[in-house]
Structure formats: C-alpha cells, structure tokens
Amino acid sequence: MSIALAPEVPSPLVLEPTDRAPRLARRFLAERFAEWGIEDDYVGRLVVCELVTNAYRHGEGPIVVRVFRDERDGLPVIEVWEGGEERPVIRPRSCAAVSGRGLQLMAEIVHAWGVRPLNEGGKVVWAKLAAS
C-alpha cells in the first residue's frame, strides 16, 4: 500500500506593518526563487513589494507573506495576508495621480491575481506570475 503525502506547505514570512516590510518581503522572495533556480526575480520582487506595501499602508495587523509554486503548473504564487477587510481596488487611469498606479501595473504583468477573505477575518491578496 502506498501513502500519498500532502504537498509541502512553505514556511511563511511574518512581518510587522512598518516601512521595512517591503524590503524584507523582497529578500524573502529572492531567497525562494534562488532555491528554485529562478534567476530572473525582478517581476516577483516588484509584485511582492506592491502587495506588501498595500498591506502596510491600507491593512491591519501583521503581514504574512507566502511564496510557493502552484502544484498544477509550477508557476510561482505570491500571497500576502493581513487583517483588514478593505479590498484592493484598481483605480481609473489618471495622468495627474501621484500614487495609486501600483496595483494596476501589477495586474498587467502577472498571469492572474485576486483576493479572498480569510475565515478568521482579513484577506489574502494573491498573484500568480507568468511563465518566463
């Protein structure tokens, strides 16, 4: 009889909601990508920075970052959890805006992204990176 093992659950990075969080998240992502042999981590670092920055500025409580590969297609997935209920919104394009473009840019460079509520409150914002 063979025993099926559950896929390995990656260890998350737990961050305090401070201005240091995006830098620490970029380093965490770069380390995961290096472990997987992914040399070009630019898009991943950009995406994790945007999601963590939004969690820091607009969310509540600690920020949890997970980076893993989708077992179905092998594409990297970035998840950022935080305790706020407010959903991220892509704002209409405006040449006069001085901020608020990050989520729109992120949405254009990833394979897919979304938001799901957590049972215990808060949400997870996730992004699946495109194949390089």
From TrEMBL:
<dbReference type="InterPro" id="IPR036890">
    <property type="entry name" value="HATPase_C_sf"/>
</dbReference>
<dbReference type="InterPro" id="IPR050267">
    <property type="entry name" value="Anti-sigma-factor_SerPK"/>
</dbReference>
<keyword id="KW-0547">Nucleotide-binding</keyword>
<dbReference type="InterPro" id="IPR003594">
    <property type="entry name" value="HATPase_dom"/>
</dbReference>
<keyword id="KW-0067">ATP-binding</keyword>
<dbReference type="GO" id="GO:0005524">
    <property type="term" value="F:ATP binding"/>
</dbReference>
<keyword id="KW-0418">Kinase</keyword>
<dbReference type="Pfam" id="PF13581">
    <property type="entry name" value="HATPase_c_2"/>
</dbReference>
<protein>
    <submittedName>
        <fullName>ATP-binding protein</fullName>
    </submittedName>
</protein>
<keyword id="KW-0723">Serine/threonine-protein kinase</keyword>
<keyword id="KW-0808">Transferase</keyword>
<feature type="domain" description="Histidine kinase/HSP90-like ATPase">
    <location>
        <begin position="20"/>
        <end position="127"/>
    </location>
</feature>
